[in-house]
């Protein structure tokens, strides 16, 4: 009867380390470092962009009165061919709700020109400039409105969850 006492246990042989995992970690670390450097470079690049050419102009009381008169003539507001699509100003939390009332002249090519901020809330957060940029890209429909001033409100609403 053999109780197994004379059997030898196999000697554990150390397997060579696999080089795959250190390579994966090195690639991962290099990718994170490259992404961090790229974001830092893009941040500096965005700061070096020129200021927009159309600056906000605060309307005088006489201009506000003229805008109200123009809005009364066209109570439904302009008929849009291309609706103004505003974007949140850079660095402003998108949970902030804002409203900008703009008054513009409809030009011959149906774009908006001589735009002025009539009312902006909240102030000094960049919403007025963003609304002016959106108005610059908009177009209206109809020949009868060329040369007239139109007044409309652009609203910034937080995204719905």
Q: Which class best fits the helix and strand makeup?
A: alpha+beta
Q: Strand count, sense and closure of the main sheet? A: 3 strands, antiparallel
What is the helix fraction of residues, given as a range? 25-40%
- How far apart the termini lie comes to 76 Å
- Arithmetic mean of pLDDT: 75
Instruction: Indicate the proportion of strand residues.
Output: 15-25%
Quick one: CATH class of the domain at 61-156? Answer: Alpha Beta
CATH architecture verdict of the domain at 61-156 = 2-Layer Sandwich
Segments where pLDDT lies below 50 for 5+ residues? Answer: none
Question: Per CATH, what is the topology of the domain at 61-156?
Answer: TolA/TonB C-terminal domain
Order of helix and strand elements from N to C terminus = HHEEEHEE
Fold and architecture overview:
By secondary structure, this protein is an alpha+beta fold. 32% of the residues lie in helices and 20% in strands. It has a 3-stranded antiparallel sheet, with helices on both faces. It starts with 19 loop residues before the first helix and ends in a 5-residue tail after the last strand. The model has no long low-confidence stretch (mean pLDDT 75).
Question: How are the elements arranged and paired?
Answer:
Blueprint (H helix, E strand, L loop, with lengths): L19 H28 L13 H13 L6 E3 L15 E9 L5 E10 L5 H10 L2 E2 L8 E8 L5
Antiparallel strand pairs: 1-4, 2-3, 2-5
